[in-house]
Amino acid sequence: MSAMKGWAFALVVIFSVLLSWSIPRGESERAFLSFSSHEPLVRVVYLASADEGQDFFMEMTDSVATNIGYDFYHDTCPEAETIVRSMMAQIYSQHKNVSAQLLRLFFHDCFIQGCDASVLLDHSNGNKNHSIEKQAVPNKTLKGFDKIDQIKEVLENVCPAVVSCADILALATRDGVVLAGGPFYPLVTGRRDSARSYYDEAMAEIPKPDDNITQTLHLFSLRGFTDRETVSLLGGHNIGKIGCEFIQSRLHNFRGTGKPDPTVSPSFFNEMRVFCEDNGNKKSSQGSPMAAPTAGMSEKPAGRGMPYFQQLSSSVSSGAGFDTHYYQSLLRGRGLLFADQQLMANERTARLVRAYASDD
User: Which terms does the record give in the GO molecular function aspect (predicted)?
Assistant: First the structure.
C-alpha cells in the first residue's frame, strides 16, 4: 500500500471510529462519558481496519448497541442518506469550501464528548443563560451551521422528527469529503442529539494552533489516539484554508512574546505577511489545529486564509484536495500553523510525515 493510500486509509478508519461515537444521553450518559473521554480507541481502530467493527459495537452497553447501526433509518426515513448526499452535491456545486467547513465543524463536535451535535446548540438544556460551545473561543469561527440547517429542513419535510442532527452532520461531512476528492467510508447511524452544550470542555480541550508537539499529542492521546492517528487526522488540513488570524500570531506575537515565531524562515515569513497582513492587526489565535479552513478567532472573521496547496513549489506535483501536499509542506518547513510544523519536531511523528509525504 502506497504512503498516500496508507494515509487515506488511516484517515477513513479514524473518521469511521469518530463517527461511531453515538451514545444516547440520559440513562447511558455515564457510559458515554467514560467511553468518549477515557477509553483508548486503538483497539477500536484495529477492529475497524480488520472489518470487524460489529464486534466492537456488540461490546458496548446494550443501550448503546441498540441505538446505532448501518442503514438505521431504513424503515423510518429510507431516503435519508440519499437526501443528504443530494443536498451536499447541490451545496458543494456553489460552495466548494463547504467540505472543509463541515470537516472542521464535525471535528470540533466529536472531540468534545463525542459526536452528539452539541456544537450546534443555541442553548444548553433549555437554559439560554448557560454558555454554549458555539461561544467557546476555538469555536467562534466555525462555519457550516447554515448548511446543516438547509439539509435538516429538507429532511424534516420528508421525515419529520426522525433524523438526528448528529447523523446529518456525520453524513454531510462524509459526503463533503468524497466531493473534495477524499475516500468514501461507510457510516453507522442512529446517533441521538445532545440537549447539553459543553462550553468549559470546549474551551479547555480543543487543540490550539500554537500548541507544541507535546501538548498536541497529549490532547489527542486523552481520546485514545496514537501518534499515527494524530498525524493522519491533522492531514485533514489538505483541504480548505488556514485562516489568517490563526497565522498572525506567528508573524507578530508568537506565544505572547511580542515577537515573530523564530522557527519560520525569512522567505516563508514574508509570504505569510503578503497573504495575511491586516493593517497591523496583531490578534492572537487560540483555535484548533484540526481542519481550520476559516478565519481566526475574532467575533468577525477576516475571511482571508492560506491553503497548504499554494505552499508547494511548481516542481511538486499536487492536487488541491486529498493528496500529500500537506505533508510535503511540513518536510519543507512550511507548516502554516506552529502545531502543524511541530509534527517535524518529534522523531516518531516526523517519521510518519515522511512516510505519508513520500508517494503521491
Answer: heme binding; lactoperoxidase activity; metal ion binding
Domains recognised in the chain with CATH numbers: 3-203 (1.10.520.10), 213-357 (1.10.420.10)
User: How many Cβ atoms sit within 10 Å of the Cβ of residue 49?
Assistant: 16
Q: Which residues are annotated as a binding site for Ca(2+)?
A: 109, 114, 116, 118, 133, 323
Is the distance from CB of 293 to CB of 242 less than 8 angstroms?
yes
Which residue has 469511521 as its cell numbers? Answer: 16
Between these two residues, 244 and 80, which has the higher pLDDT value? 80
Cα–Cα distance, 165 to 169 (Å, whole number): 6
The helix (run of H) or strand (run of E) holding residue 305 is strand 305-306
Is pLDDT above 60 for 61?
no
Is residue 108 flagged as an active site residue? yes
Query: In this predicted model, what pLDDT tens digit does every residue of 99-147 receive, in sequence order?
Result: 999 999 999 999 999 999 999 999 888 787 889 999 999 999 999 999 9
Q: Report the pLDDT averaged over residues 267-279.
A: 81
Q: pLDDT exceeding 90 applies to what percent of the chain?
A: 54
Binding residues for heme b: 237
Q: H helices of the chain, where? A: 3-19, 29-37, 42-49, 53-59, 62-65, 80-94, 98-111, 145-158, 165-179, 199-205, 213-221, 227-234, 244-252, 266-276, 325-331, 338-341, 347-357
**Cβ neighbours around 64 below 10 Å, total:** 19
Rounded distance between C-alpha atoms, residue 60 and residue 22, angstroms: 11
281 φ/ψ sector (left φ>0, alpha ψ -120 to 50, else beta): beta
- Residue whose C-alpha cell is 505552499: 311
Model pTM score: 0.76
